[in-house]
Write a structure and sequence with these properties.
binds iron/sulfur cluster; 44% helix; pyruvate-formate lyase- activating enzyme; 2 domains; 358 residues; alpha/beta; single chain
């Protein structure tokens, strides 16, 4: 904690992360006295009453584009499978939750904990979702993946980031993830009927504008390859927004390219930075409006051909209509001015998980 006494700034020592199991149980009943818990249990793709839950804090990795890293510095502490199950079961029995979204930064760090939880939750017939790394989960055995699906896990979010191994290095993705593995793993999950939800970060810096553009084109082709091996893969696109991960090679590259981070507290909460933080309106010096347009237009066409399964209001007929309109563009790689798709998405209030929540 940093605070000011008089003219002096005081910086306290960083605490270790707490062990999670000995912490007092979350006071759901107390919360319910103030605000009806049932109102927190929303209807989603997963179920009628979806519980949002954090079963761990932090992440053991240090990807240089990720805001989790400066906060947790490669630390991860998790509740045991039994504690998570007890909480979920309590909310299910008391308030009728039938689905869970695990909002942990990295739910699937430990195969052992995941398998233990899957065994406990399986008889409860609940659907669930969480976030993971591809290289971590690719080490899970077939038996574990099969059990996870049988236990109700329908969809898993993965930061694929890039199909380009040089960019994966640049992003300091850590671990062993490669472009080939991203494709192979999408195919592997198809076997288990688990939907991979892959997010990609397009628009990372490069020495020349031509190289930046070539990188974007590469990712577009790569995403189409992923879709070809497993069309149910959900694709979430972000435009790269620098994170102040001081000391990383990417941080130096970003500063050298002329990018300026906010200097005072007010700037961090300004609408301009908020937009930037949502990775939708980048102001990075190496991206031209044409490049940003290309990324956004591709995203519109892609979402037209493959509308997200998480949009539960979009009927089958509407899906078919958008697919019909967008399909030809996708096939012949024409993404410019996709106004007809945008119009349908606007009229039918198409849902984008990266903006409206997963
Ligand atoms: S694995 Fe995911 S949560 Fe962990 S540091 Fe990398 S991007 Fe962030």
């Amino acid at each position: 904690m940093i605070y000011k006494t008089g003219k002096e700034f005081v910086k306290t020592q960083k605490e270790d992360l707490f062990d999670q199991d000995p912490l007092p149980p979350l006071p759901y009943d107390k919360l319910n006295e103030i605000y009806n818990i049932k109102k927190y249990l929303g209807k989603t793709f997963l179920g009628e009453k979806t519980l949002a839950y954090h079963s761990s804090i932090g992440c053991p990795f240090t990807c240089s584009f990720c805001a989790v890293v400066p906060i947790f510095e490669a630390r991860w502490k998790a509740k045991s499978a039994q504690t998570v199950y007890n909480d979920v079961k309590y909310i299910k029995d008391k308030w009728g939750a039938d689905a869970i979204e695990f909002h942990d930064n990295n739910f699937f760090v430990s195969e052992k904990r995941t398998v233990e939880f899957a065994k406990l939750i399986k008889p409860e017939k609940m659907s669930w979702w969480g976030m993971a790394r591809i290289d971590t989960m690719d080490k899970f055995s077939d038996a574990s993946l099969a059990l996870i699906r049988e236990a109700g896990c329908k969809i898993i979010f993965f930061g694929a980031e890039s199909g380009n191994n040089l960019i994966l290095d640049q992003l300091d993705k850590g671990g062993t993830q490669t472009g080939d593995q991203i494709i192979r793993f999408a195919e592997r999950l198809k076997k288990f009927d688990i939907i991979p939800e892959y997010s990609f970060v397009l628009g990372t810096p490069a020495p020349t504008a031509k190289q930046v553009e070539a990188q974007i084109d590469f990712e577009i082709d790569f995403i189409k390859k992923v879709k070809a091996v497993n069309p149910r893969t959900e694709i979430v696109l972000y435009t790269y927004s620098p994170v102040p991960s001081e000391g990383s090679a990417l941080f130096k590259q970003v500063e050298a390219a002329g990018f300026k981070y906010p200097k005072v507290l007010e700037d961090w909460i300004s609408p301009a930075w908020e937009n930037f933080d949502l990775r939708k309106n980048p102001l990075t010096p190496w991206l031209t409006p044409e490049m940003i347009g290309k990324i956004q237009n591709f995203e519109t066409v892609l979402n037209g051909v493959y509308p997200t399964v998480t949009d539960i209001r979009l009927s089958r007929i509407k899906r078919k209509a958008i697919q019909l309109v967008a399909g030809m563009r996708y096939k012949v790689n024409v993404y410019n001015y996709p106004y007809e798709i945008k119009l349908l998405q606007k009229v039918w209030k198409y849902r984008q998980p990266e903006i409206q929540g997963f």
